[in-house]
Amino acid sequence: MGADRRVPPGPLPFDPAPPEDPMNAAPEPEILAAFEAAKGFMPVHEGLALYAAATEAGRLGLPLLEVGTYCGRSTVLLADAARRAGVTALTVDHHRGSEEQQPGWDYHDPSLVDPEVGRMDTLPAFRRTLHAAGLEDHVVALVGRSPQIAALWGTPLGLVFVDGGHTDEHAGADYEGWAPHVAEGGLLLIHDVFPQKLDEFTGQAPYRVYLRALESGRFTEVSATDTLRVLRRTGTAVPPRG
Predict the structure, then answer these.
(1) Rounded to whole angstroms, what are the CA distances from 1 to 4, 5?
(2) What is the pLDDT of residues 28-69, one digit of tens each?
(3) Which residues belong to the active site?
(4) What total of structural domains would you count in the chain?
(5) Would residue 93 count as lying in a domain?
C-alpha cells in the first residue's frame, strides 16, 4: 500500500481566496463593450454601479427588473448579472419613447421612428442589442405601460431599477407600482436623481421618488454613484410624512 496522501486535520497551508464582494463585481470586457455599443444615456461609471448592485441582488435567487428599457443599454448589464446568478432579468417598457424622446426634444432620435406609423419604436433596437450581447435567453421583455403591468404582478423581486419616464406622474407611478414588490433585503435603484435642477431637461421627479422611498421607512440608502441611488428594502414600513 502507498503512503496515505490525505491532508491531515488542522489548518490549511494557505488561506482560501475570500468570496467575491458582489458590490465590487465587474462585467467581462465583451459585456461592457456591448453596453457601450448600445444606444442609451447611462454612462459607464453608473453602469458599473448598476452591475455590482444587480450581482448582489442576484444572490437572493429572485428576478431582477428594470422599468425603462429604451434600446437595452442597461438591460445588457442587468441580464448578464442575472445570468451569472441563475435568475431572470425582466424589463418593462411600452417602447414608444418617454416625453423627452419625442420629436422636438433634445433626446429625440429620428432613426428610432417607425416609418409605417410615424411613432417612436425602440423595440427592434432593443432586440438587436440583446442579440449582439448574446443575452436573449436571459431576458423577458414586458411590453406595455408600467402601471398596467405592475397591477398584474405578484412575484417578489430581488431588484427594481426605476429608469422610466421622468415626470412626477410617471416616475411616481413606477415607484408606487414596483417598489412594493422588492423583497426584504432586495434593492431599489433610482436613476437620474438630481437634487438641484440644472436645466429644463433635468426634471427632479426621480429625486422626489428617492426622497419618498427614504421617508417611507421601507428603504435605506446603500450607495450613490453620480445620479444613481441604490437603496435596500428593510423591515416594517413607517407611514410617510404628510
Answers:
(1) 9, 11
(2) 999 999 999 999 889 999 999 999 999 999 999 999 999 999
(3) 166
(4) 1
(5) yes
Whether residue 101 lies inside any domain: the answer is yes
Residue 69 resides in a domain? yes
Residue type, 143: V
Rg (the chain; Cα; Å): 20
Report the candidate in 180, 227, 232, 234 with the shortest Cα–Cα distance to residue 206. Answer: 227
DSSP H helices in the chain: 29-37, 44-58, 73-85, 123-133, 146-152, 168-178, 205-215
DSSP labels, 69-129? -TTSHHHHHHHHHHHHHT--EEEEE-SS--GGGSTTSTT--GGGEETTTTEE--HHHHHHH
Residue 23 covered by a domain: no
Question: Range with the lowest mean pLDDT among 59-68, 83-92, 94-103, 129-138?
Answer: 94-103
The pTM for the full model equals 0.83
- Residues 159 and 178: their CA atoms lie apart, in Å, by 10
Relative to beta strand 64-67, strand 89-93 is parallel
**Residue 84 maps to which CATH number?**
3.40.50.150
Range of the domain at 60: 32-226
Identity of the amino acid at 214: L
Decide if 65 contacts 157 (C-beta within 8 A): yes
